[in-house]
Amino acid sequence: MMITTRHASAAVALVPLLVACGPKEAAKTDSVKTDTAAAAAAPAAGAPNAATFAKTATVGGFRTPESVKYDADQDVYFVSNINGNPSQKDGNGFISRMRPGDNTVDSLHFVAGGRGGATLNAPKGMAIVGDTLYVADIDAVRLFDRHTGKALGSVDLSKMKAHFLNDVVAGPDGAVYITDTGVQFDAKGNTSHPGPDQVFKITGRTASVAVSDSSLAGPNGITWDKANGRFVIVPFAGTSIVTWKPGDAKPAPLAAHLAGQMDGVELLGDGRLLVTSWADSSVSSVAKDGTTTKVVTGVPSPADIGVDGKRNRLLVPIFTGDRVEVYQIK
Q1: How far apart are CA 30 and CA 207, in angstroms?
Q2: Omega into 43 within 30° of 0, i.e. cis?
């Protein structure tokens, strides 16, 4: 389908057209709905990292949902809503809060741009450090109290050539790390890639470039791999997952020949990675040896996924569908 300004994705930022997203989504509604009809999606028989992913709920009513973050302490899900052009500073972005017990949205506008001193234009990835929720927002990182939604300020990265801040993760050092896909959308939804491809680091309110290298290939999703002391980064412009250790000058390859147009990445407790791909509308499981198995298919525009470790759930924001799909991992 052609990417319009309404459905221009954080992940699709490197191409003006995305024909692999499948048929156009049905008309949207402002109401928040939950579909509890279950549908199973499982990998091929005999797959080395086989597991069953059963869809247990579909929650609608969002506005261009880009990321889902599980807050284990509060037992809630945060959902970032771009609500328009992912590069436009329109002030209408917002963060929703979901309750996992019954998969309901108890606060659609938990944080809203323009309310209570909050600035949110096109919020994407999120991370939690202490009581602070960090949110990537074009060329700045916004800070909010994760309990109340109160705005706590911003860290401006525009002077450091940030163009498209995308995903955020808490590092082992208490800092947060943010990918910059290095692209821009104009008012008509056309894209350019001014670059560079980089990852920023914020310590307190001080920002620096952690790593900048063309092999990042439009870095999108990022997660911390504690067992191996490294970050795992997935690109939108490439087909290889890379890793990076703090202090290293360059990333290192981890797994190659994936479908491409990757967006979200999460690490499961057993060491497997879950990676979304817009290229084939899928979520894949990547084993420690690099073996890749599709575990969820038929998910157009799967963005920055979240994992609920308490319930062993995968949460997939469907960017062009204004919904979040919930899968039970068995």
Answers
A1: 37
A2: no
CA of 24: how far to CAs of 3, 59, 139, 215, 298, in Å?
Answer: 10, 18, 30, 33, 13
pLDDT score for 188: 78
Q: How far apart are CA 173 and CA 296, in angstroms?
A: 33
* Cβ proximity of 72 and 269 under 8 Å: no
CA proximity to 302, closest of 259, 269, 256, 254: 259
Tell me the one-letter amino acid at 262. M
What pLDDT was estimated at residue 190?
82
Q: What is the pLDDT of residues 66-115, one digit of tens each?
A: 999 999 999 999 999 999 999 999 999 999 999 999 999 999 999 999 99
What residue has token string 């993760």?
Answer: 169
Q: CB–CB of 156/169 below 8 Å?
A: no
Partnered with residue 156 across adjacent β-strands are: 140
Structure tokens of 256? 């190659």
**Neighbour-count burial of 278, counting CB atoms closer than 10 A to its CB (0-12 exposed, 13-18 middle, 19+ buried):** buried
Give the 3-state secondary structure of the chain: CECCCCCCCCHHHHCCECHHHCCCCCCCCCCCCEECCCEEECCCCCCCCCCCEEEEEEEECCCCEEEEEEECCCCEEEEEECCCCCCCCCCCCEEEEEECCCCEEEEEEEEECCCCCCCCCCEEEEEEECCEEEEEEECEEEEEECCCCCEEEEEECHHHCCCCEEEEEECCCCCEEEEECCCEECCCCCEECCCCCEEEEEECCEEEEEEECHHHCCEEEEEEEHHHCEEEEEECCCCCEEEECCCCCCCEEEECCCCCCEEEEEECCCCCEEEEECCCCEEEEECCCCCEEEEEECCCCECECEEECCCCEEEEEEHHHCEEEEEEEC
CB atoms within 10 A of CB 145: 13
pLDDT higher than threshold 70 for residue 39: no
